[in-house]
Design brief:
The protein is mainly alpha-helical. The protein is built from ten helices and eight strands. A hairpin with a 4-residue loop joins β3 and β4. The longest helix is centred in the middle third of the chain and has 25 residues.
């Protein structure tokens, strides 16, 4: 049974759309329906059939927010936390993702689920139940909703998420973190920067899980040396193969990408050049 068949097993499916069963042993009253429709919609949202589109939408939303957010308008507490990460040189977590992006992704994930399920519940009726097409439509519309302050107070949720990170990881702030706008000094441009020192990774509609599997599976010939560090082995021996066919240590390529995107003139770019042939690498 494939993923769609599994979802359809929750319903009586007539071949053209989801039809909620009205048999006496599946529903006895409107009250029963009202108590089960929320669970039914949540189950549909959480089904593995929709994992890819949900993750892709989350990534696109996170990327857009990081491109367009006016950092000066973020809460004082959030800017202080961000300043503390810069001050302690811990902007990135152990997975090489910025802590800001990690927290943002968490709140976007929660808010997209909440809004989507809430909107589907408002549309759901016994005679016309919502189905997978309705869910896909709402997921597509989530981009415009979650990148607009009209539909979501992102700052409050993001501040709370960042505070949780600080508490859970035993981090501390000092008074000077609160006394200035978010900023960091770039040793490359020798100037103070007031935008995020990174850009999120654009997956180009490729499953992130698949990318991780491919990275682990990449093999290289004996005597091979990474063209970035010029070594066969490194602290992180996992290798990745670019779209143009070149193999690098994962950590070496990630460091090159980060250095490229931290440069002011490249801040709006989503691809970086291959270190060998200069072909775009997403």
């Amino acid at each position: 049974m494939d993923s769609m068949d599994t979802i359809r097993a929750l319903y009586d499916y007539d071949g053209t759309g989801f039809q909620r069963s009205t048999s006496s042993d599946s529903i006895d009253s409107m009250d029963n329906w009202l108590t089960t429709h929320s669970t039914r919609i949540s189950t549909m949202y959480d089904h593995t059939a929709f994992v890819h589109i949900i993750n892709y939408q989350i990534t696109m939303i996170v990327e857009e927010i990081q491109k367009t957010t006016d950092l000066s308008k973020l809460s004082r507490d959030l800017k202080a936390i961000m300043n503390s990460w810069v001050r302690t040189r811990t902007w990135y977590n152990q997975d090489k993702m910025s802590k800001f992006e990690h927290c943002l992704r968490n709140v976007v994930t929660k808010e997209m689920r909440r809004q989507t399920i809430e909107r589907l519940e408002q549309q759901d009726m016994p005679s016309f139940p919502v189905n997978e097409d309705d869910l896909c439509y709402e997921l597509e519309q989530a981009f415009s909703r979650l990148t607009s302050s009209e539909f979501w107070d992102m700052d409050a949720d993001l501040t709370a998420e960042a505070k949780s990170w600080v508490t859970n990881h035993g981090e501390s702030l000092i008074e000077s973190d609160f006394d200035r706008p978010f900023s960091w000094f770039s040793s490359r441009t020798m100037s103070t920067q007031y935008q995020l020192p990174h850009m999120s990774k654009h997956t180009n509609n490729i499953d992130v899980v698949l990318l991780k599997v491919l990275a682990i599976d990449v093999k290289h010939e004996s005597g091979w040396a990474c063209s970035i560090c010029l070594k066969n082995n490194s602290e992180n021996p996992v290798c990745v193969k670019t779209e143009c066919g070149h193999i690098y240590h994962h950590k070496c390529l990630a460091d090159c990408k980060r250095a490229f995107l931290e440069q002011k003139e490249n801040s709006c770019k989503t691809c970086v050049p291959c270190p060998l042939c200069r072909a775009p690498v997403s």
